[in-house]
Design brief:
With 190 residues, this protein is α+β, with helices and mostly antiparallel strands. The protein is built from four helices and eleven strands. β1 and β2 form a beta hairpin.
């Protein structure tokens, strides 16, 4: 039996709307929910196997996309937000009560500075970009997943049309490497 990846993948991937105008994310508290508004759709939405991202109960992977931080605003109950690890590159803002991560923000010099990392599954609206790939697949082993069973995870992703990587997708890795090369002076004026 194939492992449970994430409900939005296990139950079939729904294609997003390229003209989707955005929507709101909600924490999972029964009352006084944190509300985060996103103006526009996300990019690079993907399944992430890292140990830092929030995952729904029983899921091996999170689903996370990026959006310009200028298009993210907290509309309700901001006082319930807490940064999980202020020393992390991505400062994940989570609800103090239910633990759900609403958005992650990079506050230091980084190739992805200006982008926020969000979980659009926390929205009631339909039309968000569907998952594009799976990242950090091997990282599920660090969380206790049996190493001999990772091929079944990769096969599950392949069966729904998602490429798997043990880092990020090539385009995102190129962006990180370009940033590093520019910073070091190896690539000037590109």
């Amino acid at each position: 039996m194939a492992p449970s990846i994430h409900p939005f993948i296990d139950n079939g991937i729904t294609k997003g709307d390229p003209n989707f105008p955005g929507g709101k994310l909600y924490c999972r508290c029964p009352t006084d929910k944190i509300v985060v508004a996103l103006k526009g759709n996300v990019a690079h939405n993907h399944a992430c196997g890292c140990s830092k991202c929030w995952k729904p109960e029983g899921a091996l992977f999170s689903l996370v996309g990026v959006i310009s931080r200028d298009n993210v605003s907290v509309e309700a109950n901001e006082s319930k937000l807490k940064v999980i690890d202020p020393s992390a590159t991505i400062e994940r803002n989570a609800c103090k009560e239910c633990g759900v991560h609403l958005f992650g923000r990079i506050e230091k010099e980084h190739a992805f500075y200006g982008l926020d990392f969000v979980h659009v599954e926390l929205s009631d609206e339909k039309g968000w970009q569907e998952p594009q790939f799976a990242a950090f697949v091997s990282s599920i082993i660090e969380q206790g997943f049996p190493p001999g069973e990772t091929d079944s995870v990769r096969e599950k992703f392949k069966s729904v049309g998602l490429q798997t990587y043990d880092v990020l997708s090539p385009g995102l890795m190129d962006a990180l490497s370009t940033f590093t090369a520019k910073k070091s002076g190896k690539l000037a004026n590109l």
